[in-house]
Design goal:
four-stranded antiparallel β-sheet; mainly beta; 1 helix
Length: 144
């Protein structure tokens, strides 16, 4: 067994090397502190104000600091999706909206697939266009 020297404790820099062992092969290797940080910060967020009318695609006024990107698509009356190929693989997804929920007006976030988060808008239980006017939407993903 090798000797580990006693070193002073300093702050860690992103490029600093860390000695680790590969769990599947047992091989010893060096990784950067940044690569370890990247594993633990696997959350992404998309924030925007959305407006949709007629048969137009939703128009987004995106907020600064988004780490998730995508494209809004009109799929049919009251049916929309936020799309980014592969963005929703092996992640948990949460969606927040400012559209008021009532018996006459509601927005429903359907389950996601690997590439899309679906949003449906209703008025009195009927799929309806034009229900989003400057509505806040937040899509949050996190790897587990």
């Amino acid at each position: 067994m090798g000797k580990i020297n006693n070193y002073s404790v300093d702050s860690v820099n992103p490029g600093d090397k860390v000695l680790c062992s590969d769990a599947s092969t047992g091989q010893t290797k060096n990784v950067t502190a940044q690569s370890i940080s990247d594993l633990t910060t696997s959350a992404s967020v998309y924030r925007a104000y959305i407006t949709q009318s007629g048969t137009d695609e939703p128009v987004a006024t995106e907020l600064a600091g988004n780490t998730l990107t995508g494209e809004w698509v009109y799929n049919g009356v009251g049916l929309y999706s936020f799309e980014n190929v592969g963005a929703f693989v092996d992640v948990k997804v949460a969606v927040i909206s400012s559209l008021p929920q009532s018996a006459n007006t509601r927005i429903v976030f359907n389950g996601n697939d690997d590439d899309k988060v679906y949003i449906n808008t209703y008025a009195t239980s009927t799929l309806t266009n034009g229900m989003m006017t400057d509505q806040y939407i937040e899509i949050f993903t996190h790897s587990v």
